Amino acid sequence: MLGEVSTIVVSSPDYAKEVLKTHDLIFASRPPILATNILGYDSQGLALAPYGDYWRQLRKICAMELLSSKRVQSFQPIRGEELAKLIKLIDSKEGSLINLSKEVTSTLSTIVSRTAFSRKCKNHQEFISVIKEATEVAGGFDLGDLYPSAKWLQHISGMKPKLEKLHHQADQIMQNIINEHREVMSRTVEGQHEEAEEDLIDVLLKFKDANNLTDDQIKAVILICTLRPKLEKLHQQTDQILQNIINEHREVKSRTIEGQHEEAEEDLLDVLLKFKNTNNLTDDQIKAVILDIFGGGFETSATTVVWTMAEIIRNPRVMWKTQVEVREVFDKEGKSNKSILEKLEYLKSVVKETLRLHPPGTLLVPRECKQACEIKGYNIPFKSKIIIHALTIGRNPKYWTDPERFTTSSFDYKETNFEYIPFGAGRRMCPGITFGLIDVELPLALLLYHFDWKLPIGMKNEEFDMTETFGSVVTRKDDLYLIPTIYHP
């Protein structure tokens, strides 16, 4: 149990198969989560919508239109243009230390923004900034999600401080504040002090006796950030930006129909607006889908590109083999060949191994049990929250030889069966796999074709820090800095 919610963490392929395949329909829905309810327009996006008619309708639109292979390929000119800018930028810094994490993230965020909004988006950087902040905030938990019966807790949430050394200082400060509030409340009751507007601590102190709260429990709640107001503020920001973008698209479409504007290539928002009337989609539902595309788009792809570069810089032979393949194929086929990625088999195995060791989401999006059932002798209660631990499954020594080591041979003679699920599986499997993999494989291929790469001067492989962050997307703790040298065929 996490709080009052029955929570099952699945960390083996056998049990993952039971949840994602054998009993997939029972576990096809999503639990209510404060962050997604506020930021995701009451969870109306494809990733977080409850299972039902609306979700099936949305899934069909995404599979047939938004994320189809044809649609993904139609954005190749955008990828080509933005990646060419990235290569030109790195080229200008040959021999210098560059922040590859920053440059890759910036490029992929622009690609996702242009595919979603084309060049009509005037708020690209502002929107990306809000999305990144929202992702960080939503990576925490809300006390109300863990204690549904304690309604007052739904207004309070956050995470413990990261630095233990601040605990004693914070404890003393907060105890003083609590004591001051008690004194003020006492004087107010006695009529010696003018009654003031209640703050968070006043509310907690009122609940102290009725809910048997200790001072330490009150301090713990104070110490964590108040998540709901921050989420609501973020929601208002994203909502306003998205509504402006939708309105701009409508105006451009109207002028195009009237012959006042040259017809432009369709972006994903254009496609959604076409389906608005025939599928009864509201503006809020369209915004929720756009947020899905951004949330599951640029940051996960950028994270995987950076992790791949970090792994192969530590493995010179893997780097060399990947570059040999990329350069041979590109020199023979040309870099503009649409099907060129299909020929880069070794690169694909390198990306697979990176996703095994560093899945963008250590924990897959939670599922909810829609009816009580039994899995391998365990009773799963109704409304249980199911969390698939993709990282643990990908490093399970029962299924992987030397699971902590990066080796492309992991997939040489293996047909995976739920021991490799970075994109999930079953009905709720990530629908944007094709989109995401192209945005990983193509940047990597170009970076490895055009440049040779070195660690910062004086750094040895064994000194290279591979520490991860904690959050909804697991990135490197430190940005990746490397030195490029231009490759001359």
Strands, helices and their partners?
Blueprint: E1 7-10, H1 13-22, H2 34-39, H3 53-66, H4 69-74, H5 76-92, E2 98-99, H6 100-117, H7 124-138, H8 143-146, H9 167-189, H10 200-210, H11 215-223, H12 227-257, H13 268-278, H14 283-295, H15 298-313, H16 316-333, H17 345-357, E3 367-368, E4 373-375, E5 378-380, E6 385-388, H18 390-394, H19 433-450, E7 451-454, E8 481-486
Parallel strand pairs: 1-6
Antiparallel strand pairs: 2-8, 3-6, 4-5, 7-8
Main location: membrane
Keywords: Heme, Iron, Membrane, Metal-binding, Monooxygenase, Oxidoreductase, Transmembrane, Transmembrane helix
GO molecular function, one term: oxidoreductase activity, acting on paired donors, with incorporation or reduction of molecular oxygen
Write up what this structure looks like.
The chain has 489 residues and is mainly alpha-helical. A three-stranded mixed beta sheet has the order 1-6-3. Among the domains are: 32-142 and 292-362 and 391-486, Cytochrome P450 (Cytochrome p450, Orthogonal Bundle); 160-223, no CATH class. It starts with 6 loop residues before the first strand and ends with a strand. The longest helix is centred in the middle third of the chain and has 31 residues, at 227-257. It is built from 19 helices and eight strands. Residues 154-174 and 220-228 have low confidence and may be disordered. Heme binds at residue 430. Belongs to the cytochrome P450 family. It is a single-pass membrane protein. Its cofactor is heme.
Residue share in β-strands? 5-15%
Strand neighbour order, sheet with most strands = 1-6-3
What does the main sheet amount to?
3 strands, mixed
Helix content: 40-55%
Q: Segments where pLDDT lies below 50 for 5+ residues?
A: 154-174, 220-228
Which class of secondary structure composition applies to the elements?
mainly alpha
Round the Cα radius of gyration to an integer and report it. Answer: 25 Å
Name the CATH homologous superfamily of the domain at 32-142 and 292-362 and 391-486: Cytochrome P450
| Helical run tally | 19
Which CATH top level class of the domain at 32-142 and 292-362 and 391-486 fits?
A: Mainly Alpha
Instruction: Give the overall shape.
Output: globular
Under the CATH scheme, the architecture of the domain at 32-142 and 292-362 and 391-486 is Orthogonal Bundle
Cofactor: heme
Pfam family, one: p450
GO molecular function: heme binding; iron ion binding; monooxygenase activity; oxidoreductase activity, acting on paired donors, with incorporation or reduction of molecular oxygen
Subcellular location: Membrane
